[in-house]
Design a protein that fits this description.
Layout: E1 2-6, H1 10-19, E2 24-26, H2 29-34, H3 40-53, E3 57-61, H4 67-80, E4 84-89, H5 92-103, E5 108-113, H6 116-124, E6 129-132, H7 134-139, H8 144-158, E7 163-166, H9 172-181, E8 185-188, H10 190-194, H11 200-216
Parallel strand pairs: 1-2, 1-8, 2-3, 3-4, 4-5, 5-6, 6-7, 7-8
Helix pairs in contact: 4-5, 6-8, 8-9
The structure holds erythose-4-phosphate.
């Protein structure tokens, strides 16, 4: 499973990249705003800064909601850096734009996916990635993991190449459960990746090893 980090914070991206397990970055307009990145030129420069840190795909989301605007913005985004993936909303216009870009060989990520039908449509339009929002479904008492499983089954039925990018991952168990289902990629906060390191028996075991070594090497 590929690990993406879902942030626009350069320090967090550097930390995840430094771990040696990072495969890409996803951003969205909320995450950019959270970092105080505003104004077109600053936003475009920030995407390039992210691409220069990570070895892998970087999803940059269009703001336009009409087809022509999405194409215009998407083309501007892909011209920035070869690692850019055009992130498009799961709307009629977004699906048309996805088909346009996939026909041109440009990588796409269809975002804001909350049903298996939407994921099927994204695959038909040739999306590189489809982003079902696991955590946001859990937030409204709907089983987000069940959706990931449904999409996995549908894509496997037809050998669709679209990669399931489990998004809105909130914690370590989301990561583990997505891996069990066979999601191709997960994107979450740095804490969801670092959480995988933790086990009390690891800490206790290491403390014991070091203490025993110290006793024998006084
Ligand atoms: C996906 O690409 C989104 O950026 C994201 O995962 C949203 O997560 P949230 O529900 O935690 O905001």
């Amino acid at each position: 499973m590929k690990f993406f980090i879902d942030t626009a914070n350069l320090n967090e991206i550097k930390e995840a990249q430094g771990l040696g397990v990072l495969d890409g970055v996803t951003t969205n307009p909320t995450l950019m705003a959270k970092e105080g990145i505003t104004g077109k030129n600053n936003i475009l420069k920030h995407y390039v800064d992210i691409c220069n840190i990570v070895d892998g795909d970087v999803s940059a989301e269009v703001i336009a909601t009409d087809y022509d605007g999405m194409i215009r913005e998407g083309e501007e985004l892909v011209d920035l850096h070869e690692q850019i993936v055009v992130k498009l909303p799961m709307t009629k216009e977004g699906i048309k734009a996805c088909k346009y870009f996939s026909d041109k060989g440009v990588k796409t990520n269809v975002t804001l996916v909350f049903s298996a039908g939407q994921a099927l449509l994204a695959a038909k339009a040739g999306a590189t990635y489809v982003s079902p929002f696991l955590g946001r479904l859990d937030d409204i008492s709907t089983d987000g993991l069940a959706l990931i499983q449904e999409i996995r089954d549908i894509y496997d039925n037809y050998d669709y190449e679209t990669q399931i990018l489990a998004a809105s991952v909130r914690h370590t168990m989301h990561v583990v459960n997505c891996a069990k289902i066979g999601a191709d990629v997960m994107t979450g906060p740095l804490s969801s990746i670092l959480g995988l390191l933790k086990h009390p028996l690891t800490d206790i075991g290491l403390a014991q090893f070091l203490a025993d070594h110290a006793k024998g090497n006084k």
